[in-house]
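Lecture notes, unit on binding sites. The following record was shown on slide 14. It pairs a sequence with zinc ion.
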Amino acid sequence: MSQSRIRNKLRTKLLSNEKRCIYCASLPETIEHFPPVSLFDRRDRPSGLEFAACEACNHGTKAAEALAVFVSRIDKDERTAGFWGSQAGQNAIFTLEREAPGLRSQILQNPSISNYLAPSGEVEQQIEIRLSSEKAKNLLDAFSAKLGMALYREHIGEPLPLNGIVQTIWYTNAGLGRDLYEKLLRTFPIFATLKQGKKSYPNQFGYRYNTDGSRILAALVSFHGNFHVFFVASGEPETFELPYAFIGASETTGNVMHPGELLSRLT
Ligand SMILES: [Zn+2]
């Protein structure tokens, strides 16, 4: 069977097996890849983490994804400096500008950035990116909620129930200190990343998680070591007394969402 016929068969199977979009109550119409391909070097994304989603949820969060790509590449120690001069780096800047016009310059002008990221995209040493704008916060909240709902589907085996809760906090490279990172990691013994045959890129996308296998999933997800999302998702939030106060919550941004609220947060 040809590759495209195999893909079509998998797609039909995925869509017919899912009763609703994994993010809302609508019927599933499309296959969503989460995390998106744009987060991987050379768009080389291993297969897996493919979900049934409605058209609106799948394609309505492009700005959120573009910003996640952008912040995941802003490194403190220049490991990714070469990225901004590459075609992929230029594409990341172009896409963010297209999907969220003006946001990039707003981020770069923010006085709480402790160092300088040149307009050309060249990264200097010790960049600390702090996103204080409402727009940036809403976008990364939406990205994080999507991530939580997608991984809930993956590990629990069904979409997060409509009365369920996904509680998220994201950290740019300035927001998650090593101590807190290590503390969070110790809570989550199981490590996962995307694998396809032998291909896997845990440095680009990896997560540690913990779950009871049926009602709750918590995970710490890392993108390129610079952008981190911590979430708890539960189909029985009352049982687990969610939402609750995250460790380090005073330093950063928490967000609580039910399935179906994704796109309303972005308007
Ligand atoms: Zn949807």
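Take-home: The longest helix spans residues 134-156.
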